[in-house]
Structure formats: C-alpha cells, structure tokens
Design a protein that fits this description.
twelve-stranded mixed β-sheet, TIM Barrel, 27% helix, 10 helices, alpha/beta, globular, single chain
Length: 355
C-alpha cells in the first residue's frame, strides 16, 4: 500500500493554521430529485454530463491515497447521492479500504426506503436526512416538489435497517420555518431521532441569500426553551461549556463536530445547532471536499479548486495525487468570512459543490 513520507515522517493534511484534516466529504453527483431554494434553481438546471463525474474506481483511489495522509472518515453527498446508480457498491469499496473507520451519508430521503437496508449491509455507518419541515405544505414550499411522505417512509426504513441515531438536518429560515421548530422538538423528545437545526447559509443557486433571512441558533434555542424548558449543552469530551456563549466549547480538546448538541432538562431527547453564520466553527474544521467532477475544495465557501480528475485520467501517480491533496489543504484560509465585508458568495451553489 502507498505510504507517502517526507523526511522520514508520515505526512498529514495540516494547514497553516495547524488544523489537522481527517474528514473527507465526497460528492457523487450534482443531480437531485427535489429543488430546495437554498441549494438549487427551481427549473432548467444544467447538470454535468455523466462522463464528467468521478467513477467509483477514481473515488476509491482518492480515498486510498487520502488514508496515507490521515483520512479516516468519509461522508457521501450530492446533489442527492441516492440517485447515483449502485451507490451501495461504492460504499462496499470504501468500507474495504484499510484505515477508513466511518462512512456516513447525507440524503434527502426520497429514495431511502428502497436502499436503506442495502446501504447498511454494505457498510454505511451513519445517516443524516435533510428534512426542513414536518408540515407537507412547508416541505413543498422549501423543496418546490412533492415527496414528504416518501421521506417519512425513508426515515422508517432507516430505523428498521438499524441506523441509530438517525439525524435530521433542518435548515432554519426566518419567515418560513419558525413554526416547525417546536414540532421538531417534540419529534426529538418522542423518538431517538436527533434533530439538527442549521442556519441558512449563502450557498443558494439564485444568489438571493440575505442575512435577515437567517434564523439564528440563539433564537431557535429560545423558541424551544419557551415550549420545553431549559436546554443543557452537551459537553464535548475533555471540554467545558462557556457559560457566556453556550454555543462554543472551550478546553484542552476542541470538538470537530459542526453541531453543538443540547439535551432537554428532563433527559428526554437531544437536538443540535449548526450555527455556521452566527458561530462559525472554522477554527476547528477538519474536513475538505471532492466535488462530483473531481475538484478538491478545502472549504465549502472556497473560491479556488484543485483539479484532481485530470491527474487521475492522465496517468498521475499516487504520490502526485497525495501532493495535490497536501497543497490544497496548505492553501486553506482561516475562515469563510461570512460575517465580514470581505465575503463573496462562491460561484458554485451547494448542489454543485456537494453538501
């Protein structure tokens, strides 16, 4: 197996700010079967030709090279990854790569009822299901498509297949989803589902994001506490909670998870907050991305990409691919600057980058 070394030491994906990267998010397609306004245009979407997408063999090769640099966690994304034919075959291939200890998947759940058990049997460890509303009408307003009942069927199929806990990702948008927060709270309390509320980010295809449309994490907490009483921050291992800012974890160990989890005071249920706008987690980021068309991105909001597909298809060696990966991480910026006048929305929307 390839081992990449410099001066006798195993190299690692460490950027100039000292962040170690072990988490690779792989987009397998830009296609999707719904049209969430915060991600895609409603109509007339031009998808990549299938020949432009990385093959399963190419994805596996990237992962094998990445493990020699410390990659041990994978998340498959899209677009909607379940529209990629035979996705379970890719899961099987990646699960067999020495050094990979965790494979997750983010899906909208529309096709999950057909594939949940097969994915579980193939080695998928974790599932995140995007569901922004528990009301069919609000669901359709967000997705601009039908499919709410199919998502619910997918969630049930995932539960039957043995995925636990199942995490639901709910993007929170002011003026649209406030009345969904309490129902999600009840769902978290009445089931083993972990609901994670995500602040609306500037990655929409139409470029219509406005800061005043962001429903902030502290507002979501206030809504939940008004209904259910106090929430307790779940303390990260070896860390402590900052009483003045409970969304931040401080201490000797910085959590790399983007979500800060909370428990209800009576111990029934857990929710998470991903405060990408109001409380960015850039300082502890340990992830980077491969787009479906074979570009390394060291940040979701990056304006620069590193082309690995050309190297894969032109006879590049594993050492050259590793060097490309190292260079990409070395060039990573300190943060996304959403809260700065310097921020410029990326040209690629979310569906094209990979969630």
């Amino acid at each position: 197996m390839l081992t990449v070394r410099r001066s006798g030491f195993m190299r690692r994906l460490i950027d100039r700010f000292g962040r170690l990267h072990n988490n690779l998010r792989i987009s397998v397609t830009d296609r999707c079967n719904i049209r969430c306004f915060y991600c895609m245009p409603a109509d007339n979407v031009e998808f990549m030709p299938k020949s432009h997408l990385l093959t399963f063999e190419e994805i596996e090769r990237i992962v094998r090279v990445g493990t020699t640099l410390g990659i041990d966690r994978i998340r498959l994304t899209g677009g909607e990854p379940l529209v990629r034919r035979d996705l379970h075959v890719l899961v099987q291939r990646l699960a067999s790569v020495p050094g990979i200890i965790d494979i997750g998947l983010t899906t909208n759940g529309i096709l999950l009822d057909e594939q949940a058990q097969l994915l579980k049997d193939s080695g998928l460890k974790r599932l995140n299901i995007s569901l922004d509303a528990l009301d069919p009408d609000v669901f359709k307003a967000v997705t601009r498509r039908d499919g709410y009942e199919r998502v619910l069927a997918g969630i049930e199929a995932a539960r039957v297949a043995g995925f636990s806990p199942i995490k639901l990702n709910a993007v929170s948008v002011r003026g649209l989803t406030e009345d969904q927060i309490v129902p999600f709270g009840h769902l978290a309390r009445e089931t083993e589902t972990v609901v994670r509320f995500i602040e609306f980010m500037p990655l929409d295809a139409d470029g219509q994001w406005q800061r005043d449309k962001v429903l902030f994490a502290h507002e979501i907490i206030a809504i939940l506490e008004s209904e259910f009483g106090p929430l307790r921050p779940v303390v990260a291992e070896s860390g402590t909670v900052d009483a003045k800012n409970p969304l931040a974890i401080i201490g000797n160990t910085i959590t790399h998870a983007p979500a800060q989890d909370y428990e209800f005071a009576d111990g029934r249920g857990r929710i998470g907050l991903i405060a990408s706008v109001s409380q960015p987690f850039c300082a502890s980021c340990n992830r980077f991305r491969v787009t479906a068309d074979g570009k390394f991105r060291n940040c979701l909001f990056s304006h620069e990409e590193t082309d690995v597909k050309t190297m894969l298809r032109s006879g590049g060696t594993d050492d050259e691919i590793a060097e490309l990966m190292l260079e990409c991480i070395a060039a990573k910026n300190e943060g996304h600057e959403i809260n700065s006048s310097k921020f410029i929305q990326p040209d690629r929307p979310m569906y094209s980058i990979g969630g």
